[in-house]
């Protein structure tokens, strides 16, 4: 009786072992070391379009002489900051100052002679025609004084903006002509990124929109910019619209001529399901993934939205909290048990 009972136990044990091995052979068991899992969680979807360009100063001014003469003095150097209305160059200022003094003296004399002649006229000692000649002399003297003051003011060349001197084009002692270039000043306290926008992206770009700016020479740094101007006519050859992105530059890190990449956000969606692109099988025809439930792998058909370089947006087919397999897919089959 004991022998028979032991035989039955051994027989049943072999039978269940055979059943287990059959299931393993049929479905297989994958080692946890061979695969990676991902729990579906809400994510933010942001997509940016990138445009190449270059940096220009926010303001660029060529300072010219309004009068001809000799450069008596300069108060600036290349690469140095100058302030708005700062006197930068004196062009024959000393000579013109003397002319202004002479004109002022002549005017005062003409005013004195007029007053004396008017007194004589009031006493009926002088004629009206004589008085009028002194009035005319006084008025001419006043105009000459105003012209002398204007010439003196023009000789003191001032900076129209606050900025950095890019180039100095004259030296002390040189003779210059009216309208001759003296120096170039750039305002780089903020700069402009010059880019071109394809016609298809014009819907996403508008004045005042915040843009993300990266600089080739400053890897790892990201600057915020805003659309400053947007062209209203596309280039006939490229079919792109010119745009300027204004960027604050308080630390002086951005210089004219630098290459830039301006990124415009075209999609922003919260609470999205995003999974690695590599986790999706048959991406272009019938996209599906392996979902794990109770350690058992099963295929799930998906409806995809935006497909990106490294990830995809899942519109339907998955729920938050579900577990999917994202690597080791070649060793997974439908119904396979995946170890912990």
Q: By CATH's scheme, which homologous superfamily of the largest domain applies?
A: RNA polymerase II/Efflux pump adaptor protein, barrel-sandwich hybrid domain
Using only C-alpha atoms, the radius of gyration works out to 42 Å
Helix content: 10-25%
Low-confidence stretches: 20-27
Q: What's the helix count? A: 3
Give the total of beta strands.
20
Counting structural domains, the number is: 3
Taking the alpha carbons of the first and last residues, their distance comes to 43 Å
Q: Reading side by side through the largest sheet, how are the strands ordered?
A: 3-10-13-12-11-14
Give the overall average pLDDT: 90
**Percent of sequence in beta strands:** 35-45%
The second-level CATH architecture of the largest domain is: Beta Barrel
- Series of secondary-structure elements, N-terminal to C-terminal: HEEEEEEHHEEEEEEEEEEEEEE
CATH class of the largest domain: Mainly Beta
Description:
The two termini are 43 Å apart. It is rod-shaped and about 130 Å long. The longest helix has 30 residues, at 93-122. Helices cover 25% and strands 42% of the residues. With 340 residues, the protein is an alpha+beta fold.
Please specify the SSE layout and strand pairing.
Elements: H1 2-27, E1 29-30, E2 36-39, E3 43-64, E4 69-74, E5 81-82, E6 87-91, H2 93-122, H3 128-155, E7 156-158, E8 163-168, E9 175-176, E10 181-198, E11 210-215, E12 222-230, E13 240-248, E14 259-276, E15 288-293, E16 296-301, E17 303-307, E18 311-316, E19 323-327, E20 337-338
Parallel strand pairs: 1-20
Antiparallel strand pairs: 2-19, 3-10, 3-14, 4-6, 4-9, 5-8, 6-7, 8-10, 10-13, 11-12, 11-14, 12-13, 14-18, 15-16, 15-19, 17-18
């Amino acid at each position: 009786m004991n022998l028979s009972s032991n035989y039955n136990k051994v027989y049943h044990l072999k039978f269940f072992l055979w059943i287990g091995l059959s299931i393993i052979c049929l479905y297989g068991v994958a080692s946890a070391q061979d695969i990676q899992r991902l729990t579906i969680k809400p994510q933010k979807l942001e997509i940016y379009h990138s445009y190449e360009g270059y940096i220009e100063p926010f303001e660029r001014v060529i300072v010219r002489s309004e009068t001809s003469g000799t450069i008596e003095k300069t108060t600036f150097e290349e690469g140095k900051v100058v302030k708005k209305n700062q006197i930068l160059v004196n062009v024959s200022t000393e000579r013109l100052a003397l002319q202004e003094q002479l004109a002022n003296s002549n005017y005062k004399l003409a005013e004195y002679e007029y007053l004396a002649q008017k007194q004589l006229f009031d006493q009926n000692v002088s004629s009206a025609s004589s008085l009028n000649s002194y009035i005319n002399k006084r008025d001419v003297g006043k105009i000459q004084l105003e012209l002398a003051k204007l010439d003196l003011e023009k000789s003191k060349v001032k900076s129209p903006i606050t900025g950095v001197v890019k180039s100095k084009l004259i030296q002390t002692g040189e003779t210059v002509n009216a309208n001759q270039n003296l120096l170039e000043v750039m305002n780089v306290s903020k700069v402009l990124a010059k880019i071109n926008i394809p016609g298809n992206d014009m819907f996403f770009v508008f004045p005042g929109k915040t843009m993300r700016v990266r600089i080739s020479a400053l890897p790892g740094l990201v600057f915020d910019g805003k659309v400053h101007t947007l062209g209203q006519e596309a280039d006939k050859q490229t079919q792109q619209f010119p745009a300027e992105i204004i960027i604050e530059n308080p630390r002086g890190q951005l210089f004219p001529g630098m290459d830039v990449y301006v990124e415009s956000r075209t999609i922003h969606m919260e609470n999205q399901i995003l999974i690695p692109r590599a986790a999706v099988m048959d991406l272009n025809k019938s996209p599906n993934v392996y979902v794990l439930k109770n350690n058992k792998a099963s295929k799930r058909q998906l409806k995809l939205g935006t497909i990106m370089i490294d990830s995809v947006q899942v519109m339907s087919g998955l729920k938050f909290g579900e577990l999917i397999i994202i690597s080791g897919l070649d060793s997974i089959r439908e119904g396979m048990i995946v170890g912990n």
